[in-house]
Structures are given as C-alpha cells and as structure tokens.
Amino acid sequence: MTRAPRTRARPARAAVKDDPASAYDMTEVAEEIESRTLACIVDNEPGVLARVVGLFSARGYNIESLTVAETDRNAHSSRITIVTSGTDHVLEQIEQQLLRLVPVARVIDVTNSTGGIERELALVKVAGVGEKRVEALRLSEIFRARVIDTTNESFIFEVTGASQKIDQFIELMRPLGLVELSRTGVLSIQRGKEGVG
Amino acid sequence: MDGSTKADTTATSLTGAEIVLRALVDQGVDTIFGYPGGAVLPIYDAIHAQDAVRHILVRHEQGAGHMAEGYARSTGKCGVVLVTSGPGATNMVTPIADALMDSIPMVVITGQVPTHLIGSDAFQECDTVGITRACAKHNYLVKDVTQLARIMHEAFYVATTGRPGPVVVDIPKNVQFAKGAYVGPDAIQHRTYSPRTEPNDRRIEEAVDLLARAERPVIYSGGGVINSGPAASAALRALAKATGFPVTSTLMGLGAFPASDPQWLGMLGMHGSFEANNAMHDCDVMLCVGARFDDRVTGRLDAFSPASKKIHIDIDPSSINKNVRVDVPIVADCARALEALGAAWARRRLRRPSLKVWWSEIDAWRARRSFAFPPSTKVIKPQYAIERLYQLTRDRDVYITTEVGQHQMWAAQHFHFEAPNRWMTSGGLGTMGYGLPAAIGVQAAHRDALVIDIAGDASVQMTMQEMSTAVQYGLPVKIFILNNQWMGMVRQWQQLLHGERYSQSYSESLPDFVKLAEAYGGHGIMCDDPAKLDDAIREMVATPKPVLFDCRVEQAENCFPMIPSGAAHNEMILGDISGDEVSDAGRVLV
Ligand SMILES: Cc1ncc(C[n+]2csc(CCOP(=O)(O)OP(=O)(O)O)c2C)c(N)n1
Fold it and tell me: Residue A117 belongs to what H/E stretch?
C-alpha cells in the first residue's frame, strides 16, 4: 500500500545542508508516505472517539478511514480501526500518541503484523439499462457482490473485501452507471486462535 | 439522581458534594484554590461544613490554576482547583494548558449545569470536557453519583502517575446533590492506564556501554527529574559524581543539579550558557534525562549535536524519537533509570574518567563568561538586580517563580539553585501572568519560606488582582518587578528581527506600583539607584506582608547570549547584534 512520494514538512532530522532550517525545522523534503492500518482497543467511555479523532486533528495526522463499534459489552471495550498515512517517523508517533490517551488499552499495527486481515464493505448503486446493465451484473458475480436491491433501471450491490478490491469494483462500475456509493471503512482482525480485546 | 434512590438507604451514603470532599481528604489534599458560582454551590456547602481542607479564594480562576501549579511544583503533590461552570471553566483553560505543557499534576473540579440541561445552552453552560479535551491529560464528565468517588480517585491517579498532568472532573449540579455510596482510594484500579516506570535492563547496559566509552559526554537533564521527585535529583547527583560528566539542564530542570557544583554548565537552550550549548553541540555521548528536545533547547534541528550518540530517559514513550532520533531509548521513571545506571556503573567497577581534553575545551568556553554584562553605576542593570537578589537571599529558605519574558531568562541565568522544587516557571506554554499566582500557591504550601516572583512590568499586570488574595490570606509573597517599561522580550525581537519597529510593545501608562501595593493592603518599594538597591532588597525581605517591588532597570537591555531562531547551538550570539544576523527563515519563527 505504498504511495508515491509526496512533499511534506519533516519533523526531524532533515539533512539538507544549506537549507536555512529553523527552530521548528520547516525544511521541505520529499519523503516516502505510506499508508498504515492501526487497530485501537479502547475503553468504551463517552467521548473516547472524540479523543482519538481530536488527537489526529490536533497533531495534523491524516485519517483515511475510521470504523468504530463496541466489541465487548461486558468488558466495555470498543475497537477502532484507523487507516492513516505518513512517514515512518510520523506513523511511529501516531502509535505512541494514541497509547498516551488514557482510555486506549492497545494499539495494533495491522499492516505490519503477521496475519493482519483488513476488510471493507461497500454498497454500490448502479443505474442503467441494456448492455451496461448486463455487464454490471456479470462483473458483480466475478467480485462475489450480492444484489440487495433491484429495479428495472438499477441495482444495489453489496461487496466486501480488501479495500483494493473494492476500489477496483468501483472503478469498473463507474462507466456502467455508478450513481451512489457508501463504504464502511476498513475493519481489521488477526489470523489465528489468539484474540485481543 | 439515578443511583440516589438505592444508595440513600445505605449508611455510607453521602451527597455528591460530600463525596468530593471526602475524596480530597483521602487523597491527602490540605489546600484547594477556587472560586464559587451557581454550579458548584453544593460543593461550597460541603466545604463550609468541614475544616480538613483549606480553601483559598482567588480573584480570577486563572489565578487559582497557577496557584495550584505553584503549590504542586514546590511540594511534589497534586494541585487542586475548584471552579464553577461556563466562565469559571473557560477561565481555567490557560492554566490547564500550562500544566499540560509543563507536566504539572493538577486536578480541576468544575461545576456543570444539571444533567437534564446539558446540551440545552443553559445559563453558564459550556462543553467543558470538549474544551479541555485538547489541553488536559484526561477529563471526565460525571453523570452518575455512583461513579463519582471512583472518578475522583482515578483523576488523582492519572494526574500524578506517569508523565504528570492536569485532569478535569466536570460534575453537574444535580450529581453534587444526589446521594451515593463512597469508595476509598484503595479500591481503584485503572483498566487501560498503567504507565511504565521500571527501565529495561538491556537498555541500561547499552547506555552504560556508551557512557563508559564516552570521551566528550554531557548530561542534559530536564523537568522530568524534578517531577520524578527528590530521589531522581539524588540519583542524578550520584551518577554525575561517579562519572565526572558535565551537567546542563533545561529551564524546567533547574535545581535538580546544584549550581555550585564544578560540573554544572548552567542552563542550555536559546538563552543558555555558551559552555552548555557548545558542549551539547560537540559531545560524543548525550544522556538526556526527563527532557524532551524542545525547540527552545535544540535550536536548528538538522544541526543539533551532529556527532553524538544519544540516550533518552523519559516516562512518556511518545517523547522518545519525537523531535530527535535517539540511539538508546529508556522508557522509565527518571529516578529508577538513573539509579539503575548508577548501579550498573558501579557493578562494572567503572572509574571516573579524566576527560581532560573535554574539560579543557569546556573551560575555554566558560572563560567567555557568556552571562557577563557591563556594569553600571547610573542605572540598575536587570542582571545586576537579580544577582543582588540572589546574594542577599542566600541564607534564606527561598523559592522563586517568574513571569515570562527577559526577566525570566535573566532569573534563570543569574539566580542559582541548589535544590529541586525551588524554581517555578512557565516553560512550555510561556504564560505571562503565571508567576504572581504561582508564588501565592508556593507560599500557601511553605508559610515560612521567602517566596519571590521575579516579574516583568507587563506580565505582572495580567494577574495582578491576586495581590488581594495574598493580602487576605496573609501570604507575604514578594513581587520583584524588573520594570523596563517595555514588553522587553518583544522589544528585543523587534529590535533584532523587525528593523527596530517597536510596534505595540511599549508599556504606556504603567500604574504606580507603590501606590498599587498600598491600595491592596501590601507594601510598595521603588528603587532606581544601584547604590540603594541592596537596602531596598533588604527592606523587601524584612517586610512581613506582600510586597510589590518596582525595580526600575535599564530599558534597552537585551537578553544574551542567544541562539537566534534558525541557528545551531554553536552559532550563539554573545552580545548586541544587528538585524542581519537572523536568517529570513528564522524570522518567521516564534
Ligand atoms: C499571555 C501571553 N501573552 C503574550 C505573550 C508573548 N510575550 C512573551 S514575552 C512578552 C513580553 C513580556 O514583557 P514583561 O513582562 O514586561 O517582561 P520583560 O520581557 O520586559 O522582562 C510577551 C508579550 C506571552 N508569553 N503570554
């Protein structure tokens, strides 16, 4: 999930020699920005989501997607899966800053852990007639998408999978009459018999 | 409310307000700073009914916050504040942010409108947990009295453990009236929060490997050593003694290492000593303990101590590798880590290396006497005033607070500290108006000590009204104002960076501080003659009342040495310069 390099103010150790630099180091250097999926196990107290989201906005971190729901009512815990992006250094800081929040019990780097699984669900509405309609239905079968609503002129598909698969499906549906789209954002879990939470 | 019907019938059932007081007592709190209002009246009723907890009534909630900070930093205990909803809570935002930046343990209790009115834009309602979420270590809205005791104890636990900080407990008025059972502090165990305090053995060995081979070592200590408690300062001294390494410290860390020790290099950073900054720049091994590589300390990051291996001890893992990459990270309480380093050093039977070459370099830097200033018999030099203040109070049990500006830096340079917890200053947030209330908080904890706020004429007016608090409670704080009739630090930057265009930095219409002191019921002293300064300071020290000392100093004095923004440690400016020495990139910084 590595992206093309982007230019970004680097927070530390910009080794560009003649740059005037500064006390805050505002040196612009091209650095590899990567995407990372983090799962946070949190105490499900009021405001916990605001804390997590507030941390991202306060420190200028990105959120590409975020999902949250209570996962264990008795233990009072929720799982927040966040897809974020940044340099390696920023991603390391994000993890540490999340752990600093009092109600955050654990942060799992799903992207770099062995056996991390990521899935997303999308609802895709495609409107059209004739050839295009047939083609949409044919492609949906290849993607194992389910048809959950049908009219004479439209389908709604439900498709699950890794985000890239969903991206692909969406791109294929666009020329076939995609009119509306809703995605859940990424969910995550670890393979194997061990559980976290 | 909710819990009240059942809890009413139990023998231990108390009102929410009583639970708050009981929890304070059980947490060992003897003093709180506060200001009443509609949403906290039940708690004020409970205060009225007891005398275990002393309440100090302030004149503005911000004052209460800084008093609690001064109290906390000078005692090592948790500061406690009680304010009402809405404006009471918003007035507390500055001290909460200040305490977060400087890692000061503080519990702030705020009143809130009754739970059924929350969200209705009720009178004096504000979203206190929303507003303080970004500037507190943690916060709670207590919606149910049955949770109140637990949350109170948890708040103290969170505020005082790990990296300390401010915790807000927002209590709706109906919860203060409702009855519920009380639980003591012992029953509290936090599910998700458990800071790590013990260092990793392997890291300690790696650190000692580096220290043992160092030829140009430096110990860079910070506020974390003070926060960790007296054991950390003792362990720092012991390690310095065993190794013979030079020691410098941040503004927040002054006092952890004695200024009279020959290994002491003085403070480092933007206005730190030439020897400290050069030692940081040229060292081969840096031991950073309880400091966070703040931009005021590092100067230009890409030129920061380029050749050194860095060991970083911090209780907050997010501080490590945040601004500067380090080679040996040690997540632990400073005292525990320093003790472990000392023990490992002794176990390996390492001896104190001579470091002759290194010390001779340091001595050459020292010989530049970077804190020296040209003397004057005509006007009082601000540095001279602090030097005299230091000399004339050396035999006293003295605590110093400051405001923010040039005077703060001069105080750090020219007042010398032998012990921790004696120096209270707003380092991270840089809050003008901190020093006067902080001094009152210190004095409330140390009745017989000499507590001096080294102030600027602009800063001191931000919280001046707390003089009234000092007089009411007979807290004889000494407000020593270095009056240069300018926002001196702003003027200095305008001189050096903005072509001497002194926009809005002159202090017009200053009050007559002597009359002002008298109006408050304190004592006023004015001095503008270097020859009379000693006597005036003696008069201040001898006065058993709060004193405003208007010390008229040289107006155009600049604070040097200085690492200009955008420069590196070895590019310090030692004396007056022209605007050309600051790079364009440096000009945009603060
Ligand atoms: C609340 C607040 N507002 C503004 C500033 C910006 N500021 C930093 S120093 C300073 C001037 C301080 O003047 P004074 O208290 O007279 O001290 P001096 O520098 O003259 O010693 C100002 C305005 C600040 N630090 N805090």
Answer: strand A116-127
Task: Render pLDDT for A112-167 as a digit per residue (tens, 0 to 9).
Answer: 998 899 999 999 999 999 999 999 999 999 999 999 999 999 999 999 999 999 99
Strand B264-267 and strand B247-249: pairing? parallel
Domain with CATH 3.30.70.260 in chain A: 34-113
Statement: the pTM of the whole predicted model exceeds 0.80: yes
Nearest to A50 among B133, B143, B191 (CB): B133
Cis, peptide link before residue B561, omega less than 30° from 0: yes
Distance in angstroms (rounded) separating the CA atoms of residues B20 and A66: 38
| 3-state helix/strand/coil string of B242-303 | HHCCCEEECHHHCCCCCCCCCCEEEECCCCCCHHHHHHHHHCCEEEEECCCCCHHHHCCHHH
Tell which residue, B143, B50, B190, B92, has the closest CA to residue A43.
B190
- The pLDDT tens digits of the residues spanning B350-381 come to 999 999 999 999 999 999 999 999 999 999 99
DSSP code of A5?
P
CA angle B73, B89, B51 (to 5 degrees): 60
In this predicted structure, the answer to whether residue B438 has a pLDDT above a threshold of 60 is yes
**Of 1.10.20.140, 3.40.50.920, 3.30.70.1150, 3.90.870.10, which CATH number belongs to A117-188?**
3.30.70.1150
The CATH architecture that domain A34-113 belongs to is: 2-Layer Sandwich (3.30)
Q: Out of B143, B191, B325, whose CB is closest to A13? A: B325
What residues in B contact A14, CB-CB < 8 Å? 301-302
- pLDDT tens digit string along B128-175? 999 999 999 999 999 999 999 999 999 999 999 999 999 999 999 999
Q: Measure the CA–CA gap between B23 and B155, rounded to whole angstroms.
A: 11
Q: Do B129 and A47 touch (CB under 8 A)?
A: yes
